[in-house]
Write a structure and sequence with these properties.
alpha/beta; 10 helices; globular; Rossmann fold; seven-stranded parallel β-sheet; 263 residues
C-alpha cells in the first residue's frame, strides 16, 4: 500500500467503480461511497479479487439527503482517514419535458449533483489546503457545455459543476496551493445512468463510450494535475462545438440525443 486514501462517491458501478479500480491498481486505500451496501460489497469483492491486498472501506451514504456530506466527513474523520484524493462522481439524471417530470426527483438531482458535491469539496478541500497536498476530481459531463432540452435540470447541474470547479481552480492558483482540482467531462457513457434517467433507448445511449476508457483518461488527468479531461473524440467535439455555436443551435443538437432510436 502507498498509505494514501482515495474517497470515491458513486463508486458501486460505472465511472465511479472504474476510477476506484485505477486507485486500487496504484495501491491506494479506497473508500467507496454509494447508497446501497450490497452493491458496495460486490464492488469491493471485485476490487479485492483483481488487486490482492487492496484495502477497501465501505461507507453507504445517500447524498440526496442534505446532511449526508457532513455525516460522511465526520465518519472518515472518526476513522482517522486522511483523504488525499476526493472523487465527486455521484450523480444522476431524469429525461422528459420539465413540465412532466417529477419535482422531488429533480430536487434530489440538484442535491446530489451540485449541493453535495460543493459540500464535500468544502470539507475535504479545507483539509487539503491546510496540508498543502491533495487532489480532487469533479465529474461533469459534455452536458456542462450546452443547454439540454428534456434533461434540463441534469445539464444545469453539470454546467454548475464546471463553473464552480473552474472558479475554485483559479482560487487555488491565487493561494499558490499545491492542491489540484480536475474536472472530467465525459460523453454519454455506458453506465446505469441511462436506466435511472429513463433514457435507455435514446440516441445517446446507443453510442455510449466505455466507462473504463473514460475513467482511465480522467484518472491520468487527475494525477497530472490537469485542469480538465475531455475523454474520447466525442467529448472534444462537444467542447469545441460549444465555443463555435450559439446556445440555440447547441440546444437543438443536444435535444436530438434524447430522441428514441428507431427500431
Amino acid at each position: 500500500m502507498n498509505n494514501q486514501t482515495a474517497l470515491i462517491t458513486g463508486a458501486s458501478s460505472g465511472i465511479g467503480f472504474e476510477l476506484a479500480r485505477c486507485f486500487a491498481r496504484d495501491e491506494y486505500r479506497v473508500v467507496l461511497v454509494a447508497r446501497h451496501l450490497d452493491e458496495l460489497r460486490e464492488a469491493a469483492r471485485l476490487l479485492q479479487q483483481e488487486f490482492w491486498g487492496v484495502e477497501v472501506v465501505l461507507l453507504p451514504c445517500d447524498l440526496s439527503h442534505p446532511e449526508a456530506a457532513e455525516q460522511l466527513y465526520a465518519e472518515t474523520t472518526r476513522r482517522g482517514l486522511v483523504v488525499e484524493a476526493l472523487v465527486n462522481d455521484a450523480g444522476f439524471g431524469e429525461t422528459g419535458f420539465f413540465t412532466d417530470t417529477d419535482m422531488q426527483t429533480e430536487l434530489n438531482i440538484i442535491q446530489v449533483n451540485a449541493a453535495s458535491l460543493v459540500h464535500l469539496t468544502k470539507l475535504y478541500l479545507r483539509d487539503m489546503v491546510a496540508r498543502n497536498e491533495g487532489r480532487i476530481l469533479q465529474v461533469g459531463s459534455v452536458a456542462s457545455f450546452a443547454p439540454s432540452p428534456c434533461q434540463a435540470v441534469y445539464a444545469a447541474t453539470k454546467a454548475f459543476v464546471l463553473s464552480f470547479t473552474e472558479a475554485v481552480q483559479h482560487e487555488l492558483r491565487q493561494q499558490k496551493s499545491a492542491v489540484t482540482m480536475t474536472i472530467l467531462c465525459p460523453p454519454p457513457t455506458d453506465t446505469n445512468f441511462f436506466h435511472v434517467a429513463h433514457a435507455e433507448h435514446t440516441r445517446a445511449a446507443s453510442h455510449a463510450a466505455s466507462a473504463r476508457a473514460v475513467a482511465e483518461e480522467g484518472y491520468d488527468a487527475l494525477m497530472e494535475g490537469a485542469a480538465r479531461s475531455l475523454p474520447t473524440l466525442g467529448a472534444k467535439v462537444n467542447f469545441f462545438s460549444s465555443l463555435l455555436l450559439p446556445d440555440s443551435v447547441l440546444a437543438t443538437l443536444m435535444n436530438t440525443q434524447v430522441h428514441a432510436v428507431a427500431k
